[in-house]
Structure formats: structure tokens, C-alpha cells
Design brief:
binds beta-D-fucofuranose; six-stranded parallel β-sheet; 305 residues; 19% strand
Amino acid sequence: GSRASAALPPLAKKDKYKVGFAQTESNNPWRLAETKSMQDEAAKLGHQLVYTDAAGSSAKQAADVNSMIAQGVDAIFLPPREDKPLVPVILAARDAGIPVFLIDRDVDHTMAKPGEDYVCFIGSDFIEEATRIGEWLVKNANGKSKIIELEGTTGASAATDRKKGFDDFIAKHSEFKILASQSGDFARDKGRQVAETLLQAHPDADIIYAHNDEMALGAIAALEAAGKTPGKDVLILSIDGEKEGVQAIIDGKIGAICACSPLFGPKAFATMADYAAGKKIPPFIKNEDAFFDATNAKRDFAIAF
Ligand code: GYE
């Protein structure tokens, strides 16, 4: 399409900014920890944070960003719920002269580019997270091989890449088979419902890979309701590292969790300051993630959120 400007808008150097943070939803500890981290850092630095919660709707999140543009915020931090529907408002912010920093999820790079349309993406490498889960599985499967996969929100970069990374890894290990894979929307109750349905269709499944802890905890409830013992009959793997998830490792119900830090505040605001100072910002600023299994879950419990 036609664009008013082709370059990233600059950010004036100021002591205090009015910054938008358009949260996706607030239905799990990961989201709450992320919001708190952004609010705490803004308060610490004395910036005004315009906070919105899209309650799980990409349309509402786009409207929230549009209202931030109308309010004339200096910059916007956005975790795009899906990788395509938020692109038009990212371009609209750019054209309005407001730099956008994507945090925790990215958008489709054929539609918008870091370094051109938005400043950068700050977050985890989701392919790598899924690969680390696969590598742990190969060493710890103990003969288990039949997998049910619970996917995150359809169209979310975190879900797309956690599936791609895992599927690519499994494709190279013919002893494993993915029996079924379906979205549980990154939510505990949806994860429980989808696990229940898929376990009925595939009673021989002995591994569940969930794209986040909330769905893994839902799957544990589904397994227990079906009279199965999580961690024994079915090996469970997930991503995030919330306290209840890491506790489930200690309790022997989850096998391994690749951590995914929700604590974006310090890095997000430091990147904004660097940008205002004219420093070159890399298109991808990668978070380094921890990993939990029975060998360190107790010792490292303090880093769970
Ligand atoms: O893993 C999940 C959340 O986008 C990386 O979204 C994030 C994911 C996180 O709802 O729990």
C-alpha cells in the first residue's frame, strides 16, 4: 500500500515520556507478570504509562492502539495478539510519527519489518524454546512416543513458532509421532477441554506438549479426571515457567518446562532510551530463557513467576 513515510519515526530525547502499553489479555500469571514489570519500570523512571487490556480480542487491541495514536503518546509498546491483524495499526502509528516497539510476540515480516515499520521485536526465540523441549524429550522419553500437542492462540507468533520448532524437531526423530495438534488458545480451561477431547480420540497418547503452562495445567486436570496419572502414564512438557507449572515439576506431574520470561519492563524502556539517544537498535533483541526439570525445579523456584 501507499505509505506516508518510509522511515522509522524518531523519538525526541526527553526525561519523561507518555508511553502506551496495549496488553493482549490478563487471564494468566504470565500476562499479569508482564503488565506489572512494565508498570513498575514506568513508575521507577517517572514515565506516564497509558495501559489498555484487549481482553483476548485482536480487534479491541487494534482499537486500543488507535486510541493511543489519537492521544498522541510518544511511543507504543505492543505485544501483538496475532501476527497479521495488528499490522495496520503498527503502520498507522509509524505514519503518525510514533515509534512502536513489539514485545513478547512478533508480526508477519512480509507485512511489516523491524527497523523500517517498527523499531524492533524484543522477546524469546520460540523455535529455540520448542527445540529445547524436543531435545529434552529425546533424552527423557523412556519409550513414550505418542504425542498430543496443545497449541497457543492461532495466529500468535509464539504459537506458530512453538509448533514449527517442535514439528521440525520431531520430523527428524522418527521414534516419535504427533497424533493430534489443536489450539487451546494459551488458556487453562480451553487447554483442559481440548486435552479431554483429544485424549478420548487418542487414548494411547503418552506425551502431551503444551505451548504454555496454563494449558499444561489444564491437561493435568483432564488426565486426572480421566483416571490417568500425569507424569507417569503421560509425560507433560510445556513453556513459560509460572510458579504453578514449576511446582507441578516438583510434584512429578510435568516433566520439563522451557522458561519464557515475561519481565520486559527494564529491557523495553532501556531500548526506548537507546532509540531516543540515536543508537542503532537490532531488529531482534533476544531474551535468554532458563529451563526447568526435576534436576533444578526446587533450586530455581525463585525465578518462576
Ligand atoms: O508464553 C503465554 C502467553 O506471547 C510469549 O503468551 C507469549 C505467550 C506466553 O499468553 O503464556
